[in-house]
Design brief:
The structure is a homodimer. Chain A is α/β, with parallel strands linked by helices. Chains A, B: It holds the Pfam family XFP. Chains A, B: Keywords: Lyase, Thiamine pyrophosphate.
């Protein structure tokens, strides 16, 4: 074990005291920040909020990482998993000066310190957890579970970076965190940076003991060794001893990381290293009050938030509090003006090496745009609508293949998928790129390599968490997944959207590449799968997110998909949801028409309509591939059987165009909206998702009650594609019937045709239901011209 | 190691052959089920769908568990994690006769076998994964990750039961599965049954290698030992050897389970046992074709689905297929009539011991209703609305306490929560009940015991998965969680709702207790937390689920909460979402009024209105506690400042009443709806959740465009409760302004009052924003009479 100079450790201990002091100040003080006056009740905040319990440990780690950075000019960022360690991280970025650079009002002097204290957990101030406004953070300490997946995502293709990822023992109980330890099977020491997980155990979550907090070192050692790590324990409650042990352990871990990287980079080693992990056991609320009102505090769950309460009104508590606060000797830490004393200030790393200033934690600063091929190179020749079948996603796969080629040098693009790249018809990627695995490769493996950038792991959480970490450190990517199971990581999509909603308001946060999510294997085409595989609900979730970041695209064919994908891959600071199925589907638009259509977001398709020069009797709108198919077929049937009925077909590719423009920047102005949908004609709308979502969107538009929507009505089973649309009332015949019924208000001719439609429907239904084998599809062509 | 009689193993091997034969038949054959005729192309299904890869292993396990059941009269259910092992499980429940008892058309003869084959993965048939219609199942093989949490939930308070839980190596990669291994820290051998996890590794998921499939036995041993298990490996590709090893291992595991239980039950041992886990490594697609077209199949990812395709058209493939199929010697397994031969039929356990017939897998059969106290015992005296503040959830906590007491004997109620029981003001539970942990208890722990039935683990996935398993085996419970983080397990809520949507259509599935989810710590009252903690999105998710199972309640006060909770705890086959905050809140209704109100689902609150005997000028509607507060305050202000303006207040507690009645059974008939909301008057609606959800709901109602909704607009930060409603445009002043503006169409008096409201708002806003400390709330009382 190396040994760190005692004098330096003592300075580090003082620096740690300063961080702890500032942490407590944020929770308690609204005045007299340096205790230069005798402490009075009115110096104490009227409402005490914040989390002391985890904070001393977080600060200890910060201080020691600073030393590592100084000694090695190391490039390190700090991800704080423990949800409410906010005040500790704020204390540290304040001490190192990055906070004041970004928020000049919170200056490094007495006045600034007072502002730092006052803003914390105060209306209009900052939350008690690490959040977007915290410099140095790419990880919100709110919904727990993602610190390791974010850390590994940050480290991928970032060879010089070390990501210190602190896992609290509460977070360690979450499923996404437990599922993320295995990320090291995907970390390649040759090209990726390193993650140094620090499992910080203090025994409790809010009020109960934790599983790992209560586990023996032997069990923890087995568990983490089983995941492939080299486990280092540091434990204690005697600060100077813990400083010594932790410093020595950090040195060992750092040396191992660099030696593994050297082995791989200089000596060509292809073995997966046993990367180090540190288990740090220190008391909850360490250095805080030992006992209050006869109850043990330090080391118990009672230290989780405010260890001593009612300080204003209880003299005994005030006494405990003041002794506690003065135990850090603020007079030795800060000078008269509130500046950190020089001997401590010298412990701060320089410039962008300060973890609060590291550009990897403000990834837009490092963002290099993707070198994208012309998406039109992958387009499909469509001389006439509805004459050819293609798997649209296959064209995207070809484009993704070439994106990999063009960006091979800059190494800033990855593709994430729960083992469905081929199944989703994106397999052309494998012409140039492999699945990533750092484990031994078997001869029967298909395109698997340690150098692969196709990240396939059967975990939506891990796919998405990695991608988020990759994006927030300035890179690009795409997450493709089964539509129904996109809900598995829906809460992550929400939290990332919220991150972006906040970050775009902060001028110092540079734009990052958008989170692009491709949903395929959709509810309408799950053929041999059952009802559990059918759920378009992520659309509904995304509709609740702000117009400033949320985008939903439903390209109906390959050329539209390519145009949309190109746009999404170029965009910044959005969450782009792209929904399209993988099965062969009819193609509608040639390339130029597709580009124009996607640029507008929605179009009237004149070639499918017969309302030239007149107002239509009914508007048939559609969004999504299968709804488009059924709508076009329905419109064809109506045009051929009731030519005097004027039908207009409107296709929507950008769902947000339907929102009133005050709600979403893509919302069409009302005049344009009425140009397409008329002011008062019935609209029969076939929608990919849950139908009533459309009502949520079009409220505020002219006469919204006339919108009659068909969509996925939560009717599903193992059945044919056509039966699926019948079950959900969205088949061509049902759309025809609806259109005729609604147009009947202006037309007197339709009842016999409605009967005919009903008859066709009945025949098809009974055919579907009685004849289980050799089931021919209702031809998708029988209605083409 | 024990040794199982070779003759018996040979019979079991034949039985296994029969199961494999039936599995392949389901994937391939539409005729000639017993190969009694020469195989012709037209006997083969035109579209080959299904998953062979995992099936032989699943059947092997089934056959061996049957032996264990026979030898020990053991009470065992089988949870199949591997998503698409459907045909294997169907084969086994068919062989044991339970399938034919439930579905007589699929009889145990040649004709029934043909039906069995035809229905599989066929339109109108059954899906290729284990699903609700599969007897013996409480676990859908769709969205992977929950087999262990469901298994442990089933085992809790089920002392005699052993749950065999098969984890596929694909599922083993998911976060929820990895997070569920630790469930054994919560399993008490004295009172709970046992879970026997069988990690079935075959090396691949769909097309890529898996992490554990590629891991060494040493690493797997460490990992599972680290989780606390006693690890047993069985591996091989030589069937008879694997039979012998697996049988012996099962015997060892069974003996250990029973001895641990005896230690705890007879000898008072309180140590947590090292429960056994089996790691079974067998080839993917075991016993299938070794090679097709020169490519290795068995043991590779190519065996995942259909190992040999194009059988109809490719003679070589047909040859491979026929040889494969005949290798099981169907003529030795089934007699001329297609009955299983008697020497194999004797391997089937008896009656309800058959795993397809075990009542634990059809939990409604075992359901004992909760003994509920009169919820009115916990009611709050409300002599006049809006005069008292109470923490409403605290009253529920008292009721839950007494539910624990009254059902202590029948041991069929548990409470699940991610460590927030106290924080959510439900702490009265701890007067009689403890947190559950089977680990060592520390003196500083608070109400922790191995006998506790408060299941606190910081994992929404685990809380919900356990509860689902507990409910589906015939018990009762409640899951309480932070509103925003309920989205973490939203996909589980969806899948459970889908399970219920399917199961209520199956007459043989007995009703089970509802999944009750209490959301508290809501978006409106997250005070010191930030934007990441504010999200009412689970409401939107639930709105997409069918009216047959989905319920959403927004009780505005304690008496309503109690009435709603009582109803939900008595109900069956629903997912009940109950949303209410934990902070002190004004109380509105006395007990009888609350009961009447909740029974109706919504009411006009005359005491808050001034529209007696006339149509109101404006309806002020509200749903949720904070929206109710703001609406009542706004109505008060309007009544006092513009008494000639007629205001009606409608409070909605059962959100589903607003749906058109054809969509949801709770939907009010249109006449009643109009009685409350009028036919054409403006409605200003203050809603707890995302506002546009209301438009989704009320579409189809009379004149829905007149609904103007305020709600959570995704505006949040660390701030005061009043600032939150201002930020989201839902404060009393903003509601007043909106009401006046809308009523202005019929009224000419309001502009100066609108100005006054705006002025009040501005004053409050500037006050909130500039004066960070000692921030007084806008009094909630200043408007009471």
């Amino acid at each position: 074990m190396s040994h760190v100079d005692q004098g330096r450790l003592e300075l580090m201990h003082k620096y740690w005291n300063a961080a702890n002091y500032l942490t407590i100040g944020q929770i308690y003080l609204q005045a007299n920040p340096l205790l230069r006056e005798p402490l009075r009740p009115d110096h104490i905040k009227p409402r005490l909020l914040g989390h002391w319990g985890t904070s001393p440990g977080l600060s200890l780690i910060y201080v020691h990482l600073n030393r590592l950075i100084q000694d090695h000019d190391a490039n390190i960022i700090y991800l704080a998993g423990p949800g409410h360690g906010g005040p500790a991280l704020l204390a540290n970025v304040y001490l190192e000066g990055t906070y004041s650079e970004i928020y000049p009002k919170i200056s490094q002097d007495t006045e600034g310190m007072q502002h730092l204290f006052r803003q914390f957990s105060t209306p209009g101030g900052v939350p008690s957890h690490v959040s977007v406004p915290t410099p140095g953070s790419i990880h919100e300490g709110g919904e727990l579970g993602y610190v390791l997946s974010h850390a590994f995502g940050a480290a991928f293709d970032n060879p010089d970076l070390i990501v210190a990822a602190v896992v609290g023992d509460g977070e360690a109980e979450t499923a996404p965190l437990e599922g993320a330890w295995k990320s090291l099977q995907f970390l390649n020491p040759r090209r990726d940076g390193a993650v140094l997980p620090i499992l910080h155990l203090n025994g409790y979550k809010i009020s109960g003991p934790t599983v790992l907090g209560r586990a023996s070192n032997e069990h923890i050692h087995q568990l983490l060794s089983g995941h492939g790590y080299d486990v280092h324990f540091v434990e204690g409650d005697e600060p100077m001893q813990v400083h010594q042990d932790f410093a020595a352990t950090l040195d060992v871990c750092y040396a191992k990381i660099r030696s593994y990287q050297e082995d791989a980079r200089q000596h060509g080693s292809t073995q997966r290293p046993a990367w180090p992990v540190i288990v740090l056991r220190t008391p909850k609320g360490w250095t805080g009050p030992k006992e209050v009102d006869g109850m043990a505090i330090e080391g118990t769950f009672r230290a989780h938030q405010v260890p001593v309460a009612e300080v204003r009104t209880n003299a005994e508590h005030m006494h405990i509090f003041e002794n506690w606060l003065r135990s850090y000797h603020p007079e030795e830490l800060f000078d008269e003006q509130g500046h950190l004393v020089p001997e401590l200030a010298q412990l701060v790393p320089v410039g962008d090496r300060r973890m609060g200033a590291n550009p990897n934690a403000n990834g837009g600063k490092l963002l290099v745009d993707l070198d994208l091929p012309a998406f039109t190179d992958y387009g499909i020749e469509v001389t006439k609508p509805a004459t050819e079948l293609h798997e649209s996603t296959r064209q995207l796969g070809k484009m993704l293949r070439d994106i990999f080629v063009r960006n091979a040098e800059q190494q800033n693009f990855r593709f994430f998928c729960p083992d469905e790249t081929n199944s989703n018809r994106l397999g052309n990627i494998f012409e140039v790129e492999n699945r990533c695995s750092v484990e031994a490769i078997s001869p029967s493996d298909d395109h698997v390599s340690a150098d692969g950038r196709v990240m396939e792991v059967l975990s939506e959480h891990l796919c998405q968490g990695w991608l988020e970490g990759y994006l927030l450190t300035g890179r690009h990517g795409l997450f493709a997944t089964y539509e129904a199971f996109a809900m598995v990581s829906a809460s992550m999509t929400i939290q990332h959207a919220k991150w972006l909603e906040e970050s775009i308001k902060l001028p110092w946060r540079q734009p990052v590449s958008s989170l692009n999510i491709l949903l395929t294997s959709t509810c309408w085409r799950n053929d041999h799968n059952g009802f559990s595989h059918q759920g378009p609900g992520l659309i509904d979730t995304m509709l609740t997110k702000k117009g400033s970041v949320a985008r939903i695209y439903l390209p109906p064919d390959a050329n539209c998909l390519l145009s949309v994908a190109d746009h999404c891959l170029r965009s910044h600071d959005y969450v782009n949801l792209i929904v399209i199925d993988k099965q062969p589907q009819l193609q509608w638009l040639n390339q130029q028409d597709a580009i124009d259509h996607c640029t507008r977001g929605l179009s009237t398709w004149n070639w499918a309509s017969n309302d030239e020069h007149v107002e239509p009797d009914v508007v048939m709108a559609c969004a999504g591939d299968i709804p488009t198919l059924e709508t076009i077929a329905a419109a064809w049937w109506l045009r051929h059987h009731i030519p005097e009925l004027k039908v207009r077909v409107v296709n929507v590719v950008d769902l947000m165009t339907l929102y009133p423009s005050f709600l979403h920047p893509h919302g069409l102005d009302e005049t344009t909206f009425v140009d397409h949908f008329t002011a008062d004609k019935p609209v029969v709308f076939a929608f990919h998702g849950y139908p009533r979502a459309i009502h949520e969107i079009v409220h505020g538009r002219t006469n919204p009650a006339r919108f009659h929507v068909r969509g996925f009505n939560e009717e599903g089973t193992t059945t044919t594609p056509f039966d699926m649309v019948v079950l959900n009332g969205m088949s061509r015949y049902q759309l025809c019937i609806e259109a005729m019924r609604r147009a009947t208000r202006v037309h007197g001719l339709t009842p016999p045709l409605i009967a005919e439609c009903n008859d066709m429907l009945a025949r098809h239904k009974s055919y579907i239901r009685t004849n289980l084998e050799d089931m021919p599809e209702v031809s998708d062509w029988h209605w083409t011209e």
